[in-house]
Amino acid sequence: DLSSERAALLSLRSSVGGRTLFWSTTQQNPCNFSGVQCNTAGNHIIALHLPGVSLSGQIPIGIFSNLTHLRTISLRFNSLSGPIPSDIASCVDLRNLYLQGNNFSGHFPDKFFSLHDLVRLNLAENDLSGEISSSFNNFTRLRTLYLDNNKFSGPLPELKFDKLEQFNVSFNNLNGFVPKSLQTQPKDVFLGNDLHGPPLDDVHVPPAVSVDFREKKRKKNRLSGGAIAGIVIGCVLAVVVVLLFVFIVCRKRSNKRRTNATISKQRHAEEEDVLGEKPLTGDGYPAAMPALPTSSAAAAGGVGDASGSKKLVFFNNSSTIFDLEDLLRASAEVLGKGTFGTAYKAVLEGGMMVAVKRLKDVSVSEPEFREKIEFVGAMDHKNLVPLRAYYYSKQEKLLVYDYMPMGTLSALLHGNKGGGRSPLNWESRLGIALGAARGIEFIHSHGDDVSHGNIKSSNVLLTKSLEACVSDFGLAQLMGPSTTPNRVAGYRAPEVTDPRRVSQKADVYSFGVLVLELLTGKPPTHALLNEEGVDLPRWVQSTVKEEWTSEVFDLELLRYQNVEEDMVQLLQLAIDCAAPYPDNRPTMSEVTSRIEELHGGGLNPDHVHGE
Ligand SMILES: Nc1ncnc2c1ncn2[C@@H]1O[C@H](COP(=O)(O)OP(=O)(O)OP(=O)(O)O)[C@@H](O)[C@H]1O
């Protein structure tokens, strides 16, 4: 008897913000609906979950007319009997109705056809009877329609749902032909009826067609003489280029060895840590870029251009040029220590701000470093943090990025939730997901083997207008095998064993976890210092199962009306991205276009402001 459990229910309800009446499926006590009364607080409940809790008997009339804000009703796998309560029709916002696995009988109530927002309807495994009405077409947003294993009879009407994803009418007493609109469904969903026509009848393919097809395929696979010649010439040229490169590198090395022999002593004395490790001040910040070298010290070693002086090397896309001395004169503060070294914010004399990353443990040779960093610097996209310049000397490797004033997504999501922090609204979160997706897609567009390798919320930085920019691209490949990125455990795809070799599909997995983090407001395992976090993909899967409900979403998001459907779609995309098998994950360009659809189609300015 639920009324005797009221205290437990109340405490459960308050733990989820007073909006969800949730009865755990592990609840063993048999209970029924007699004596359940809803007070005014009940009016705010938006989801009623009572799956598999041995509810039996008929649901008394009037329960649902007191719960008119319900969006989800789940009474699956109980022993409820009698007609489907018609007062469910008073829940005008209803999206999900799961009554599967009970003994409901009688007709599907006509009153329900006014529930225009219904998205998931699961009536499978009951004793429902009567004809399937063409009024089901009123559910224009329907994605799931499960009517299987009932006693529905008569013909199947034309059912046209633009967004239908799940459909099943098998094992009823239906007869006649499968209507045209449903002929694209798989055979299984119609079995166990007296139905005819495609897809139930096999379609015979004449052999001539398949022969033609094979012939075409063979032709397609054959290479023309010109193409073969092109490939041979290309290969020869590639070999010549490689040999030339090896020759130049060898010559350079032998020259360098000779020069080193004469000046090495003097250089070793002078060449020093450009920045030096200066002790931090009491509040954790040094007053300026530590240990500024004089220009003569700077000139003593390192990069060496034609004139022999140390220089910052700028990339083409940089509009503002400053030199190493300007940078070293700048006032600076530590932004944080990452896997690859320490990041500083430097304010140059004119007021320009840059973020300087001082790399440690670079394992690759100088030419390899330059080649890799030039590749990174050439990446120019509005959703990547621009790498403006780099500096290379034996002792010191610096990377100069644009400074991103709003900091990281991680800090914004999990930073101080107390006063002074403005919550991220739905529009911003969707925009951030889209920006990050576009940035990663751009990286992937440079070749099948080009990936980011370290996607996480602390590597997504934000502009003042909350535009997302992905950072740290290409750094993992510069480091030795002992450098393992910090706090990535929760983001790393299960198949990744070497953090320096992360496939594009593994980036997609990490991106999926990042989107789950955006939607749930929860950090994944070990994403934050000293915090456990959760295995986000598993947690979301276990909470959501088949029931698309609001419970997984960040409480801050629940205040936004009418975007739940979009949130559910983004959640589904994130779950797809975090599929355990890489082949089941979408590509980044598929991901981007799915988010673009939501961004373009779903966002109504009226919906993004709170209640
Ligand atoms: N371009 C930037 N603009 C503003 N802040 C930045 C910038 N780059 C880094 N930061 C800040 O510096 C901190 C340290 O960054 P860094 O990239 O070195 O480490 P991380 O992202 O925390 O970890 P990892 O190195 O494993 O990716 C970040 O948390 C961020 O707050």
UniProtKB/TrEMBL annotation:
Q: Which PROSITE patterns match?
A: PROTEIN_KINASE_ATP, PROTEIN_KINASE_DOM
Q: What is this protein called?
A: receptor protein-tyrosine kinase
Top-tier EC class: transferase
Which PANTHER family is this protein grouped with? INACTIVE RECEPTOR KINASE RLK902-RELATED (PTHR48010:SF76), OS05G0588300 PROTEIN (PTHR48010)
Protein kinase domain ranges (all copies): 329-598
Which UniProt keywords are given for this protein, alphabetically ordered? ATP-binding, Kinase, Leucine-rich repeat, Membrane, Nucleotide-binding, Phosphoprotein, Receptor, Repeat, Signal, Transferase, Transmembrane, Transmembrane helix, Tyrosine-protein kinase
Where it sits in the cell: the answer is: Membrane
| GO-annotated molecular function | ATP binding; transmembrane receptor protein tyrosine kinase activity
Q: EC number(s) for this protein?
A: 2.7.10.1
Chief place of localization: membrane
